[in-house]
Amino acid sequence: MIAGSPLSWLIQLPDSVEILCSTAANGEIVTECSATCINYKDFEAKKIRRSFTCQFHPELLSDLRAIGNSEAPSYATLKNDDGVRLFVRLLYAGMQE
């Protein structure tokens, strides 16, 4: 009924927006880096489509070092870096049905 009416644009609106991650500083939630997942229902394919947003380039470590000019970061450094953690969350969310 809605698809054939002037309100058909409502079908294309997102179903939900999920905050995947954000930065915490001194126990307070901030958004120095953050990511969201926007879910849409594709009525023709009967599937959920997702778009991801990211506030910054997650592949860069916080020190913005140039690749190749320093040693590879340790596992502990990668584990604690907000950008790396955000990137992993995006990859994980993208693999989910």
What would you call the quaternary organization?
single chain
Global structural class: alpha+beta
Order of helices and strands: EEEHH
What is the C-alpha radius of gyration, as a whole number of Å? 18 Å
> What fraction strand?
25-35%
Rough outline: elongated
Any idea how many domains?
1
Largest sheet: number of strands, sense, barrel closure: 3 strands, antiparallel
Major beta sheet, strand line-up:
1-2-3
Low-confidence stretches: none
The chain-level mean pLDDT equals 77
Secondary structure: helix percent: 10-25%
Topology overview:
Elements (H helix, E strand, L loop, with lengths): L15 E10 L2 E15 L4 E8 L20 H6 L1 H14 L2
Antiparallel strand pairs: 1-2, 2-3
Description:
This protein has 97 residues and is an alpha+beta fold. It has one domain (15-95). It contains 2 helices and 3 strands, in the order E-E-E-H-H. It has helices at residues 75-80, 82-95; strands spanning 16-25, 28-42, 47-54. A 3-stranded antiparallel sheet has the order 1-2-3, with helices on one face. A hairpin with a 2-residue loop joins strand 1 and strand 2. The protein is elongated. The two termini are 28 Å apart. The model has no long low-confidence stretch (mean pLDDT 77).
